[in-house]
Amino acid sequence: CCDWSDVSIVPDLGILASKDMVAIDKASVDLVNKAPINPLGKLKEKQLIEGIMI
After folding, report:
1. Within 10 Å of residue 3's Cβ, how many Cβ atoms?
2. Which listed residue, of 3, 21, 25, 38, carries a Cα 20 to 30 Å from 32's Cα?
3. Is the model more confident about 6 or about 21?
4. Does pLDDT of 5 surpass 90?
5. Percentages helix, strand, coil for the chain, rounded to the nearest 5?
């Protein structure tokens, strides 16, 4: 857990559904990694790197 809170790291990506739990996890990670970072967030200030799974 982080000791700070922030706005969403990426915009709302919607809802995903699948009967395959591994596929839905991979699809979710892929969408988050491809989404633009919210410029109002503290992501870069906290030295987290865009494109790295959090």
Report:
1. 4
2. 3
3. 21
4. no
5. 25, 0, 75
Name the residue with tokens 């922030």: 6
Instruction: Report d(CA 17, CA 50) in Å as an integer.
Output: 26
pLDDT tens digits for range 14-41: 999 999 999 999 999 999 889 888 888 7
Assign 3-class secondary structure to 1-54: CCCCCCCCCCCCCCCCCCCCHHHHHHHHHHHHHHCCCCCCCCCCCCCCCCCCCC
What whole-number distance in Å separates Cα of residue 6 and Cα of residue 19?
32
13 pLDDT band, cuts 50/70/90, is very high
